[in-house]
Amino acid sequence: MYAEQNQAYKEETMEIERIYEGKVISLQKDKVTLPDGNTAFREVVKHPGAVAVLAIWQNQMVVVEQYRKALERSLIEIPAGKLDPGEQPMDAAMRELKEETGFECKELRPICSFYTSPGFADEIIHLFLAEQLTQGESRLDEDEFLNKQFLTLEQAKAYVAEGKIRDAKTITAIYAWELYQKTGRMD
């Protein structure tokens, strides 16, 4: 884990103006002091964090296709969702896997955690591996509509090359899975 941070470029927050408080995100405008003493403004999207699951069923990854309003199109993605207040990432990952796909597993293995858009948002996604799945019924949220699919590694990589998969968490999961198949390790 990267322990040291270069403080030479640190920006000190002088003021925070809250612009919007929503169900999933909030937006604020921060007035900051730059390292050279000048001031600037930063627009920051605050997010509670999220989880994503690389679920493997019969040597295929479980994906869902769902419409994403921000992009005005459907995307093929691994199961994922936001953290509820006070929820641990592993618990959220198990919940999202069950809700979106109907699959359950006894154990999840952490793969990595990463920031989605650090230039303007603090969202972090915790990515997990789920194997030894048992099938059940999905329990979608009332405003959630999706289609579950299964892809081999070769199909998933072809979808990335063809632009059918363009979601960063899913691409990250695909290449982690490829590494895992080749080496037995995720790191």
TrEMBL record:
Superkingdom of this protein's organism: Bacteria
First-tier enzyme category under EC: hydrolase
Known cofactor(s): Mg(2+)
Transmembrane intervals: none
Pfam families linked: NUDIX
InterPro entries: Nudix_hydrolase (IPR020476), NUDIX_hydrolase-like_dom_sf (IPR015797), NUDIX_hydrolase_CS (IPR020084), NUDIX_hydrolase_dom (IPR000086)
Keyword terms of this UniProt record: Hydrolase
Single GO molecular function: hydrolase activity
Domain (Nudix hydrolase): residue spans on this chain: 45-180
EC number: 3.6.-.-
Family: Belongs to the Nudix hydrolase family.
The protein's name: NUDIX hydrolase
Organism per entry: Marinicrinis lubricantis
